[in-house]
Specification:
The complex is a heterotrimer.
Chain A: H1 9-19, H2 49-61, H3 84-90, H4 93-96, H5 108-125, E1 129-130, H6 137-152, E2 156-160, H7 165-175, E3 181-185, E4 187-188, E5 191-192, H8 194-200, E6 205-212, H9 223-231, E7 235-240, H10 251-254, E8 258-262, E9 278-282, E10 294-299, E11 305-310, H11 316-319, H12 332-368, E12 374-376, E13 385-390, H13 394-403, E14 410-411, E15 423-426, H14 433-445
Parallel strand pairs in A: 2-3, 2-6, 6-7, 7-8
Antiparallel strand pairs in A: 1-9, 4-5, 8-9, 10-11, 12-13, 13-15, 14-15
Chain B: E1 8-9, E2 14-19, E3 22-27, H1 29-35, E4 38-42, E5 49-50, E6 55-61, E7 65-69, E8 74-79, H2 81-85, H3 88-92, E9 100-104, H4 116-126
Antiparallel strand pairs in B: 1-2, 2-3, 3-9, 4-6, 5-8, 6-7, 8-9
Chain C: H1 48-59, H2 82-89, H3 91-94, H4 106-123, E1 127-129, H5 135-152, E2 160-164, H6 170-177, E3 181-185, H7 195-201, E4 206-211, H8 224-233, E5 237-242, H9 254-257, E6 261-264, E7 284-286, E8 298-302, E9 305-309, H10 326-362, E10 378-380, H11 392-401, E11 408-409, E12 419-421, H12 429-448, H13 450-454, H14 467-472
Parallel strand pairs in C: 2-3, 2-4, 4-5, 5-6
Antiparallel strand pairs in C: 1-7, 6-7, 8-9, 10-12, 11-12
The chains are: A alpha/beta, B alpha+beta, C alpha/beta.
Chain lengths: 447, 127, 485
């Protein structure tokens, strides 16, 4: 007997009798003999809960984790504070063991959470409409590019070099399959080269994609590009760090048509890069081009407020090969985490957390660069991440920090080789002054 | 199911009313009944041009979506914004709820369309 | 219990807060004023008590596997073991960053490598990638790999993909998204792929065939060997949609059936929770000739250590940031280890037995369009005796009054008024019998008391909702009511 398999030998007998079978294996008689597996699967013997617990603990202990060592890695996944309310909510099995809300009358919990999520994303980004979430920031960028191409009936997407390299990789994987052209515009001094971007925009451009704060942590100035792309009747896609929106200009304020981003920071643990969520919000004009699930408010036959999945005609189960996207699932549980996070932090908490990140990152940057051994790659406004260059090799720095029991920043060698021994540090509100001081001291001690 | 006289019909369930060189286009009563409550209609910009058979828009109900096909070639000279704002009109009166008016570029294409009697047979075969 | 009907925004009261952050321990820095947001984001102001009560109240408006049977066909709503949840929350799994040096995440890499090995064994494939976030993304990647294979062989003209008319909507949607042309192949009278029809559509422009086996009708494709041979002879590849893998573990393997590439839904067969619509995970497995096309990075073992290998010149690229939904992988890993070979085979046996038992009990009351032995699920149609024209939707809504989740309805599209039922192996005979008797009661009500069905549901937190109004005049966010006068 297995704990998750309730059938007793007696139950099995009753079923077999009802089916007129002598043995269970007869039920598989429609499977041709030639493809039947005539041996046992080669897997370990079943493990009891205690044995399994030991295996898991031993595996997990081989990983250094942010609970036990200071971590200065960012680059798209962040170690932010997760209030205890979030873990409570996502552990309610009424939420996590439910399916997609196909039957709205018994899924009002999930549906209302999504409606609240959509509202919070709209308010945070200052856009009109949000969907129920997408897989991650990279897939949100891809879906936004498809959406822009379809609604403008153009094929060219311009992307700034300061957009997350993984996002650009995922974009380039997808674009070719749909006959879209992806052009990367090189950066200048750590930010989008507005002049080159402006010159590249034409009446063939479906959209411009810019990220702010950008991959290197710097805040972008988007006014010029916004003017030019809209003059050419293309769309502006802005990818943003949702925590930064506690302090800095929203996509709506910048004039974006589509706002996207990775929502992991909103109450989701890092979990080795997934699951998190991607968010997407757009202007009202683009609402029916938006991929993914959308929840709307309605009334029941007694006039009570209720929520349903709506605008479904865009989706794959109806449109099949003409659907706006093949996406079926959203990241509902991660969106729940984001909703409870934003509720808990609220109007003022999000701003306070963002301010902590900003102040601590600037404190760290000023101390790291104080002796002159390390320099900021560019002196520009940044949020919680900043690139440091030096004559010390990345390898030496990273292993030096590991030896001191801390995890340093993200090596920029691969993606931005022009930055000499560049490392991108991230300082969130979770890092204490003491941890930052230790990092600075450790860096100074590296030969 | 209503199939009024004096109209042309496409096999994709659009009706066409000829007014001189213009073709007024909508979807048939049969089509609205198959779709159920229409919730959204996407119509083209005036001045856009279509070949016969091109997709010129989409009509959506809660459970279905259907492309709209131009029954004849031509340029869009008028679009029914009222129906776009209140698509339920199509369910109430499919033949009163025109969608676009095309300036026909080749009126001989009308010969390819079905008469009311032929359209009735066509629907019977589909059903 | 009182009716709770508030949005969190309606609980908000200026000055309340539910968070606490430590006091600032570093000096504050000057902000770049031209880049500052002009107004606060309009988020709720509530206490922690409000947060917890609100979301607890909302949770109680949901039906879930932990409350009862959830036999949605093709969704495999099995029980989600609790040790899996504990596993995923271990700080050594949840608090690790994807860009940490490989030497600091050996446990995570080992877990992924072992999971890959186990999935290879279960499916008979050569290698797996864990990257796709869900089934649809797995399908996307699978088709990308098929395209890359043909391109590398100089056969870019192969752009058509064959899909049976019984397939899930994502199959054609994925093909369309990747610029491939969909060729539909009909089902024969037994619900399988019509071989004559298949023969007609095969050509040197065919990239491959996407097949769900067992099919969405819950039937095993008995001609699978012939189908595989035909497609391979025509130069195409076979894609296995693993949505229905719960029927076959330890019984038969897609690799042995001749499939070249497949995806699995860990959130179906491998017990990870659905989360109200995600997150899932859709790992993709490939046969030996497709291994080089897998996305980067691939986990390799060098001198006893695990590493991430990005140097894969034929790779299709990246489909997701980092390595996949790791938290979901931890759960699936735990499940497979807990069950072992013996347990997984038992899962498939009981899933299939349960489905056949229900089918036998219900076929007296509901039309059964395909009567052969089913696999893990089966499809019913109209009520046999239906004088008042009760629809499938009405039956589904009436089931809600019994406190049970309805089956998948109106799918597959080739069966009229379809009710697609997948009990799964984690339901007891008692629970299955209760479901059967609810469906039989409804069949009787359809004759004796049709009104009670037509006006259902009666006992749910809200009654029948107006979906037409929701779509005609979309209200997709909460807005503060303007004060009048």
């Amino acid at each position: 007997m297995f704990p998750y398999l309730p059938a007793t030998p007696e139950d099995e007998k009753i079923i077999l009798e009802r089916l007129g079978l002598n043995a269970t294996e007869e039920i598989f008689r429609d499977i041709p003999e030639s493809v039947r597996l005539k041996r046992d699967l080669k897997l370990d013997d079943p493990k009891s809960e205690l044995e399994m617990g030991l295996i898991l603990k031993s595996l997990s202990r081989k990983n250094w984790n942010a609970d036990s060592v200071p971590m200065f890695l960012g680059a798209g996944v962040y170690d932010h504070y997760i209030p205890s309310t979030v873990r409570f909510a996502i552990s309610r099995s009424e939420f996590y063991t439910a399916y997609t809300p196909y039957q709205p009358e018994i899924s009002q919990g999930t549906l209302q959470v999504i409606f609240e999520y959509q509202t919070m994303i709209c308010n945070l980004t200052e856009m009109d409409v949000s969907n129920a979430s997408l897989y991650d920031g990279a897939s949100a960028a891809t879906e936004a590019a498809f959406m822009a191409a379809e609604s403008t009936r153009r094929r060219q997407i311009l992307v700034s070099e300061t957009v997350h390299p993984d996002t650009r990789r995922v974009l380039s994987t997808y674009m070719g399959h749909r006959g879209l052209e992806l052009i990367t515009i090189p950066m200048k001094d750590g930010v989008t080269d507005s002049e080159r971007m402006r010159d590249a925009i034409s009446d063939k451009t479906a959209a411009v994609l810019i990220q702010t704060p950008n991959f290197l942590g710097y805040l972008e100035e988007i006014t010029e590009v916004e003017k030019q792309i809209h003059k050419n009747k293309g769309l502006l896609i802005l990818s943003v760090d949702p925590i930064s929106l506690g302090l800095f200009k929203s996509p709506g304020e910048w004039g974006a048509d589509i706002a996207i981003g990775d929502g992991q920071s909103l109450g989701n643990s890092m979990s080795f890069g997934g699951p998190g969520l991607g968010f997407m919000a757009c202007t009202k004009a683009l609402m029916r081009k938006m991929p993914g699930r959308i929840v709307g408010q309605t009334r029941d036959i007694d006039g009570n407020r209720g929520f349903v999945s709506t605008l479904q005609a865009r989706e794959q189960h109806i449109r099949r090969e003409k659907a706006t996207s093949n996406i079926c699932s959203n990241q509902a549980l991660n969106a729940l985490a984001a909703t409870v996070y934003l509720t808990t932090m609220g109007k003022h908490g999000l701003q306070e957390a963002a301010r902590h990140c900003y102040d601590k990152a600037h404190y760290a940057a000023s101390l790291i660069t104080e002796s002159g051994k390390y320099q900021l790659a560019y002196k520009k406004p940044f949020f919680k991440e900043f690139p440091i260059i030096s004559t010390v090799t990345v390898h030496k720095i990273q292993s030096g920090l590991l030896q001191k029991g801390m995890i340093g920043g993200y090596s920029l060698n691969q993606d931005y080789p022009a930055l000499q021994n560049g490392i991108l540090y991230c300082v969130t509100e979770k890092r204490t002054k003491q941890e930052i001081d230790c990092l600075v001291q450790a860096l100074e001690e590296i030969e | 199911m209503r199939i009024p006289d004096g109209l042309y019909f496409s096999r994709e369930h659009e009706w066409v009313k000829v007014e001189g060189g213009l073709a007024r286009v909508g979807i048939t009563d049969y089509a609205q009944d198959e779709l159920g409550d229409v919730v959204y209609v996407e119509l083209p910009e005036p001045e856009s041009a279509f070949q016969a058979g091109d997709t010129f828009g989409v009509v959506e109900s809660v459970k279905a979506a259907s492309d709209l096909y131009a029954p004849v070639s031509g340029k869009v000279v008028d679009v029914n914004g009222e129906v776009a704002d209140d698509p339920g009109q199509i369910n109430e009166d499919a033949y009163g709820s025109w969608l676009i008016v095309l300036e026909m570029s080749d009126s001989s294409e009308l010969d390819e369309l079905l008469s009311p009697a032929d359209y009735e047979k066509w629907c019977a075969e589909e059903g | 219990m009182r009716q709770y009907n508030k949005l969190i925004f309606e609980c908000s009261s200026a000055g309340r807060k539910a968070y606490s952050l430590p006091p600032a321990d570093v000096p504050s820095s000057e902000l770049p004023l031209s880049l500052i947001r002009s107004e606060h984001a309009e988020l709720p102001e509530v206490s922690e008590v409000d947060v917890i009560r609100h979301y607890t109240n909302l949770s109680q408006k949901n039906y879930a596997v932990d409350l009862g049977i959830y036999p949605l066909g093709s969704c495999t709503m099995k029980y989600n073991p609790k040790i899996n949840e504990e596993a995923a929350r271990l700080p050594g799994f949840s608090e690790i960053h994807p860009c940490q040096p490989a030497e600091t995440v050996q446990g995570a890499l080992q877990l992924m490598a072992e999971l890959e090995e186990m999935l290879c064994e279960i499916t008979g494939m050569s290698a797996f990638t864990m990257q796709p976030s869900a089934g649809a993304q797995g399908e996307t990647l699978g088709l990308m790999i098929i395209k890359a294979y043909h391109r590398q062989r100089g056969e870019e003209k192969r752009r058509k993909i064959i899909i049976p008319d019984s397939a899930h909507g994502t199959n054609p949607a994925t093909a369309g998204m990747l610029g491939m042309e969909v060729v539909e192949v009909k089902s024969d009278s037994d619900g399988g792929v019509d071989l004559d029809d298949l023969r007609k559509v095969l050509s040197d422009e065919i990239a491959g065939l996407m097949l769900t086996n067992p099919s969405t009708l819950g039937l095993f494709e008995t001609n699978i060997v012939e189908i595989a041979d035909m497609v391979h002879e025509a130069g195409g590849l076979l894609y296995y949609d693993g949505a229905n893998a719960n029927a076959i573990m330890g019984i038969t393997r897609p690799g042995d059936m001749g499939f070249d590439v497949l995806h699995l839904n860990l959130h179906k067969t491998f017990s990870t929770p659905h989360g109200g619509g995600g997150p899932g995970a859709g790992p993709v497995g490939v046969a030996p000739h497709l291994v080089d096309f897998l996305p980067v990075p691939v986990i390799i073992k060098k001198q006893g250590n695990y590493e991430l290998d990005y140097d894969r010149p034929l790779s299709v690229g990246k489909v997701k940031s980092f390595y996949g939904n790791f938290g979901v992988l931890v759960r699936a890993y735990t499940y497979i280890k807990t069950m072992g070979a013996q347990g997984l085979k038992r899962v498939s046996e009981m899933a299939v037995l349960n489905a056949n038992y229900m089918k036998e009990e219900l076929k007296e009351f509901y039309e059964l369009p395909f009567s052969q032995t089913c696999m893990h699920e089966f499809v019913l149609s109209h009520l046999k005796n239906n004088p008042y024209g009760i629809t499938t939707k009405q039956i589904a809504k009436r089931l809600l009054d019994f406190g049970m989740h309805p089956p998948t309805i109106y799918f597959p599209l080739i069966v009229e008024e379809a009710l697609m039922i997948e009990p799964t192996e984690t339901e007891s005979l008692e629970s299955i019998n209760e479901y059967i008797s609810a469906l039989i009661t409804i069949a009787q009500e359809a004759i004796t008391n049709p009104e009670i069905i037509k006006t259902a549901p009666h006992t749910t937190p809200v009654k029948l909702l107006d979906e037409v109004q929701a779509a005609r005049n979309p209200i997709v966010k909460w807005q503060k009511e303007e004060k009048k006068g």
